[in-house]
Amino acid sequence: MSLRLSTVILPHVRWHEGGRSAWQRAEQLGFHTAFTYDHLSWRSFRDGPWFGAVPTLTAAAAITDRLRLGTLVTSPNFRHPVTLAKELISLDDISGGRITLGIGAGGTGFDATALGQDPWTPRERADRFAEFVPLLDRLLTEDSVSFEGTHYSAHEARNIPGCVQRPRLPFAVAATGPRGLRLAARHGQAWVTTGDPKLYENGTPEQSVEALRGQTEKLAEACAAVGRDARELDRILLTGFTPDRARPLESLDAFVDFAGRHAELGFTEIVIHWPIPDSDFAADEKVFEQIAMEAPAQLD
After folding, report:
1. Which H helix or E strand runs over 158?
2. Fewer CB within 10 Å of terminal CB in the chain, N or C?
3. What is the pLDDT of residues 166-197, one digit of tens each?
């Protein structure tokens, strides 16, 4: 399988002031998927414009034809499976079956407290995630669902006609811990990682590759434990959070070298951030577009 190249477009620009054109350009450049973050606000962008993921993807679906679209990632921090399922089925219908749901357990950022709650502990996040994903799976595949859980409930929740994609739209499960990896093995069509966050500040690219190798081995073990071939899952690397930082986007050769090293680990998709000036995702737009247009052929 050829290594796919995708992008993530942060929802920080008004639709008619550059937001629309970015999604159209992503399709023109040939990206496999254009994702967006599903947050209420995020890090250094908190005090500036930030728009909702589902409306943004709906608008993007209306102005593109071939480009896959998705979240990277949605979490239980401010989502409920019942309402999320209805939005996803609608979005999958509007897009003609081009939606991928990136989904993770969430973290301790602004999303974790925006609804007035205290941040959940790592165990609480894992407990909720373990209930959230299977329930969402059912809601997207069954016409009517009733469920009483510890954290989430559904009472005769109707989701007719279901997804355009059958049996449902694909899940790309972000996970590195054992419980999350088991969810990826059971319910995922893809697995997502950003690498080992402990290496971001002081680690080396070589250490990062080894950490990622270890993660892929743990994924294979989780798949084996449920009787699934790990090769059935796509493996997605969201870049920008490894010790390499923005260096892979400095030139076409630098990116091809970076992507090639990670393809050797079994990754099937590399996601790069759409350039944002004066941010951690600053990059030369001409080089970015050159990578989009020329790198996939070199990675065949």
Report:
1. strand 153-158
2. C
3. 999 999 999 999 999 999 999 999 999 999 99
